[in-house]
Amino acid sequence: MSNLMHPLNAQHLQSCKAELCKHAEFFQYGQAVNEVFGADNHNTIRDWLMNLQEENPHRESEPVITTTLASKSDDERLQNHDAEILQNQKEENNRQLEQHINRINLMIVNKEMDHKEFCKDIGSLMSMPFAQVQIICDGLDFTLMPEDTFDSFFQEFARNVDIPYQSHIMLIRTAFFKKVCNLSANPSRNFLATIMKTASVKNKPIIYGLLLPLMKDTQKIGRPQLDIITRIIKEELFRDTTSSSVATTDNGTTEQSRYFLGNDWKDLTIEILIVIFNKKFSLRDRDLLISFLSHLNHNIEQQPENKKLAQIMLLLVTKHGDDILNELDYVRSIADKINTFMKKSLLNNIELLKRQCKNIIS
């Protein structure tokens, strides 16, 4: 590029120089103006203007940037402060829960406890948010409570304490389930009576806090646990909810969930099913029925000479015939695989149901 400037440009620059020099003291650029505008190489003007942008302490954008940075810094401090408060609250809550747990466990082993006061304390804790109830129940050990104290407490609790449904289930599971699982001999009459008395007030917490958790893994239970399961199922006060819930075939933890007895049924499982199907309950849920029949079919294929499996089939046909009318062909195909003395009676009952079904259609 030529170092010569257009006359008009030179005149314009001289005018700018004169104007800037009037304010040289304010801007403090006098020396820079003389150096730049007095130079032969006017390409340095661009560099000078860039320096001017960097050095000027009065440019308008700087306060905006400073404000933005300060705002971000303040936000971070507030967030850190809030996080610290939340963490402190969490730690304090955990300390309080630990104190509650320790206090209740001390009361549990005290044979001379005030049952009403203990019920009040437990009721208060069970009314906390469910997440805290879970933490508390995980820390309690009712297996250390003397049997007579256990009986008195739960009778008092069932009659006089009202707590949220899910919390009640959690408490029953914490107190009864652990004690039942620890049994190595037949349960005492007092303990069985405590279960039934507690259930007579509200039966669903016993079903979903004790019975179904035991049913979820029948491979691990023994005769003492089987005794409790069968006694619960046989009780009339459970008639409307127990059998239909237990006879379902999927895993779960809520009232609406279905429970699974396993693919390969052992003797204890089969004995439980005999008790269940001796009761009258609805099997009109087709998915439930098909699932159960599928598992029954699998086990009969594995054990065709098992008399107890044949007994389940006979109970299914005689006590629940109305519910299986639409699946008689499938039921017949399963019955054909049985190899016991009950097979003839079973097939005759299926034929009776088929004729009954034809009469209904006609």
From TrEMBL:
The keyword Protein transport does not apply. GO terms for biological process: interstrand cross-link repair. One of its GO terms (cellular component) is Fanconi anaemia nuclear complex. The keyword Magnesium does not apply. Residues 80-107 form a coiled coil. Keywords: Coiled coil. This is 9382_t:CDS:1. It comes from Ambispora gerdemannii. The lineage of its organism: Eukaryota, Fungi, Fungi incertae sedis, Mucoromycota, Glomeromycotina.
